[in-house]
């Protein structure tokens, strides 16, 4: 079996909050808690979850833009971070990998230097990594702008002269110009008008096919994840609750949290609409997560035993994993109810 392009094992990331009299952190927020996943080359993997669930932190840890607290991250067979070995690649050591690992940011306006022309912005990485001949950087930048729907004739203009959708196209061209193997798309549609979102999504689909790109697609919009991604991972308070092929999770969500998420998403097809699962209670603090199953404080199916131990990831079907103490019971009940309704 081929080695996955991206491999993450037992990843955790803590952020210090406040300082005591002696300069130590008073509290620590655990943004990512023991996450493990693999992304094969050419796959579009989606991460979904509520705001604050740790999605963006995971993407930045994989790219080594922020240093994890523990665990390991491997890209294309090379270890980027391993807490057991005390290994964390430096800026200089990461530089050869940066060409293969790029990011599309959530806010296209903040991600583009307003003092530079868009041609210079796209050409900057080409020069940094010495791609092609030294004098061809501007032409290559113009070619990738054209590929992403921006005329090369506009390369001398600055970002402030473009709309939000155009700025995101420039950001995509900047990432693509290095011919990467892996792209983290960190909520790339959330800052855009609805009318523009589908255009950007279709552009990324087209570029994926043309360049055989691998995506980590981070979003809270379940409809775009359903349309774009091959597999989905569902996050709650920094931990995966469910993982599987997009079709399997859409058709048969097994975790109560996944069911609640998808029941809240508007569906165009009446047959796919389900009754709304309403969650009670507040989202727990990441400073002091609940014991056992983190979701038990809001779960409509919670029992006393759910707070006693962390549910392991179990394989419900081929490639479909779920972390819930009661998933078998809940699934059997749902099947029985469905059969009774069809009698």
Characterization of this structure:
- The chain has helices at 55-62, 91-98, 108-111, 118-128, 137-147, 164-176, 194-211, 222-228, 246-251, 256-263, 327-342; strands at 6-19, 25-39, 44-48, 70-75, 78-82, 87-88, 101-104, 182-186, 214-218, 231-236, 239-245, 314-317, 320-322.
- With 343 residues, it is an alpha/beta fold.
- The protein has 2 domains: 6-100 and 180-342, Rossmann fold, CATH 3.40.50.300; 116-178, no CATH class.
- The strands form 2 sheets. It has an 8-stranded mixed β-sheet, sandwiched between helices.
- Helix 4 packs across helix 5 and helix 5 crosses helix 6 (164-176).
- It is globular, with a radius of gyration of 22 Å.
Keywords:
Rossmann fold, alpha/beta, globular, 343 residues, eight-stranded mixed beta sheet, 13 strands
What's the topology here?
Blueprint: E1 6-19, E2 25-39, E3 44-48, H1 55-62, E4 70-75, E5 78-82, E6 87-88, H2 91-98, E7 101-104, H3 108-111, H4 118-128, H5 137-147, H6 164-176, E8 182-186, H7 194-211, E9 214-218, H8 222-228, E10 231-236, E11 239-245, H9 246-251, H10 256-263, E12 314-317, E13 320-322, H11 327-342
Parallel strand pairs: 3-9, 3-10, 7-8, 8-9
Antiparallel strand pairs: 1-2, 1-4, 4-5, 5-6, 10-11, 11-13, 12-13
Helix pairs in contact: 4-5, 4-6, 5-6, 6-7
Total helices: the number is 11
SSE arrangement, N to C: EEEHEEEHEHHHHEHEHEEHHEEH
User: How would you classify the helix and strand content by structural class?
Assistant: alpha/beta
Strand order of the largest sheet: 7-8-9-3-10-11-13-12
Number of domains: 2
Helical amount: 25-40%
CATH superfamily of the largest domain: P-loop containing nucleotide triphosphate hydrolases
Principal-axes geometry comes out as globular
Strand % is 15-25%
Query: Could you please say which CATH topology of the largest domain applies here?
Result: Rossmann fold
- What is the annotated CATH architecture of the largest domain? 3-Layer(aba) Sandwich
């Amino acid at each position: 079996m081929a080695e996955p392009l991206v491999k993450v094992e037992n990843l955790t990331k803590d952020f210090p909050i406040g300082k005591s009299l002696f300069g130590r952190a008073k509290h620590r927020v655990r943004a990512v808690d023991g996450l493990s996943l693999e992304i094969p080359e050419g796959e579009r993997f989606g991460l979904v979850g509520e705001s604050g669930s740790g999605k963006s932190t995971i993407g930045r840890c994989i790219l080594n833009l922020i240093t994890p607290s523990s665990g390991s991250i491997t890209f294309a067979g090379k270890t980027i971070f391993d807490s057991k070995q005390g290994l964390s690649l430096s800026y200089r050591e990461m530089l050869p990998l940066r060409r293969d690992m790029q990011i599309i940011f959530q806010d296209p306006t903040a991600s583009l230097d307003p003092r530079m022309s868009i041609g210079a912005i796209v050409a900057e990485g080409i020069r940094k990594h010495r791609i092609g001949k030294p004098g061809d950087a501007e032409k290559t930048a113009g070619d990738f702008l054209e590929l992403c729907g921006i005329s090369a004739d506009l390369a001398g203009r600055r970002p402030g002269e473009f709309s939000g959708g155009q700025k995101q196209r420039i950001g995509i061209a900047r990432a693509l110009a290095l011919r990467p193997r892996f792209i983290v798309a960190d909520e790339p549609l959330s800052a855009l008008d609805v009318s523009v979102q589908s255009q950007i999504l279709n552009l990324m689909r087209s570029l994926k096919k043309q360049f055989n790109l691998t995506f980590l697609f981070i979003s809270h919009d379940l409809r775009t994840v359903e349309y774009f991604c091959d597999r989905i991972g569902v996050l709650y308070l920094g931990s995966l609750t469910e993982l599987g092929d997009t079709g399997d999770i859409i058709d048969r969500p097994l975790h109560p949290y996944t069911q609640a998420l998808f029941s809240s998403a508007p569906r165009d097809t009446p047959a796919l609409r389900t009754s709304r699962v309403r969650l009670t209670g507040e989202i727990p603090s990441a400073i002091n997560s609940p014991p056992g199953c983190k979701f038990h404080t809001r779960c409509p199916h919670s029992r006393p035993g759910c707070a006693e131990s962390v549910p392991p990831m179990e394989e419900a079907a081929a490639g479909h994993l779920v972390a819930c103490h009661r998933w078998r019971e809940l699934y059997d009940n749902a099947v029985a109810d469905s059969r009774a309704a069809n009698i």
